[in-house]
């Protein structure tokens, strides 16, 4: 009998606990700052987004679900909710970057890719101190990349490719200690690639292809111990000059080296054969000459080496069949 009473008592207390939690969840309101910001964004967006954003509270209210693409988190203590993720992509958003986004200071992910956003990224982007993923690729954004992005110390993924950014790559991006993936290809960037990027301890993927960049690889890797984690280096279709320095072999984790479509010259150093995991080596459409060292042909992991459009001696042959290297979103976004 006593055991039965204890079981009933435990079940009753569990019921009370769940009931209290339900009351907290129902009465938990979204921070007014975030409600105001999302409603300002809603007012500026097109019908394709607005039709799915029902109600005044973006985190849901009563029977109304959270707005599509909006993720909210209850803060410690359960008193209120904040918006932590905003993913509104491929819905043909037209117009300038919504300034109200920069008031969502608890965001960890901001994904507005594949829309028709225009104008600059506002410098207020630097307010989003918790941001880990910033994906704005495939828009029509313009002007310079704001150096304030360098204030986002938790950023791991930065995707700004396929826009119309101009000016130089801000060296402030080297202030992002957690950055792993940096995609800036298909813009109108000029100047030299900041060698300070080589100090990023976690950078795995650097893509600055299809811009108007100048300089040499020697300048890029001049800092001792640079790019310790880099696996993929895309420098293709720019205006880089000079040769491939032997010191490039110090990038011990490099797997993809994409130098196609520049104005580089000189011979290919045998040291490239000492990069243990080198898998793709694209040298085509430059001004390289001489022979390619036998050690490179004997590299155990090299699957492709493309050499067309250079001045190599007769008898120098490619490895594998050339194809444009395209990595899917799943290779990057976590």
UniProtKB/TrEMBL annotation:
Keyword Signal (UniProt): yes
Annotated Pfam families: LRR_14, LRR_8
Cell location: Cell envelope
Protein origin, superkingdom: Eukaryota
Any GO BP annotation: defense response
Keywords attached to this entry: Leucine-rich repeat, Repeat, Signal
Domain Disease resistance R13L4/SHOC-2-like LRR: 101-209
SUPFAM superfamilies referenced in this protein's UniProt entry, alphabetically: L domain-like
Stretch forming the signal peptide: 1-28
Coiled coil: none
PANTHER family per the UniProt record, alphabetical: OS06G0587000 PROTEIN, POLYGALACTURONASE INHIBITOR 1
Name of protein: Disease resistance R13L4/SHOC-2-like LRR domain-containing protein
């Amino acid at each position: 009998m006593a055991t039965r009473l204890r079981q009933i008592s435990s079940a009753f207390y569990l019921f009370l606990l769940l009931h209290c939690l339900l009351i907290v969840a129902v009465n938990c309101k979204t921070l007014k700052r975030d409600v105001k910001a999302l409603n300002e964004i809603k007012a500026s967006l097109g019908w394709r987004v607005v039709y799915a954003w029902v109600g005044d509270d973006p985190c849901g209210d009563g029977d109304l679900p959270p707005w599509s693409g909006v993720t909210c988190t209850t803060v410690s203590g359960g008193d209120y909710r904040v918006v932590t993720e905003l993913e509104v992509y491929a819905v043909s958003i037209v117009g300038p970057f919504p300034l109200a986004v920069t008031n969502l200071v608890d965001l960890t992910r901001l994904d507005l890719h594949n829309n028709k956003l225009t104008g600059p990224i506002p410098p207020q982007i630097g307010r989003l101190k918790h941001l880990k993923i910033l994906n704005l690729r495939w828009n029509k954004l313009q002007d310079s990349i704001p150096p304030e992005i360098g204030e986002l110390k938790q950023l791991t993924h930065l995707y700004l490719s396929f826009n119309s950014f101009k000016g130089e790559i801000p060296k402030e991006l080297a202030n992002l200690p957690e950055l792993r993936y940096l995609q800036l290809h298909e813009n109108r960037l000029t100047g030299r690639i900041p060698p300070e990027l080589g100090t990023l301890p976690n950078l795995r993927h650097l893509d600055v292809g299809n811009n108007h960049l100048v300089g040499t690889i020697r300048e890029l890797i001049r800092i001792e111990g640079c790019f310790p984690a880099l696996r993929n280096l895309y420098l293709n279709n720019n205006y880089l000059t000079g040769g491939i320095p032997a010191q490039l072999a110090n990038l011990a984790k490099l797997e993809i080296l994409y130098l196609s479509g520049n104005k580089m010259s000189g011979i290919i150093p045998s040291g490239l054969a000492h990069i243990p995991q080198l898998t793709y080596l694209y040298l085509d459409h430059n001004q390289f000459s001489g022979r390619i060292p036998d050690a490179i042909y004997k590299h155990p992991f090299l699957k492709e080496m493309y050499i067309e459009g250079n001045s190599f001696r007769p008898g120098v042959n490619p490895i594998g069949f050339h194809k444009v290297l395209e990595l899917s979103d799943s290779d990057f976004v976590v």
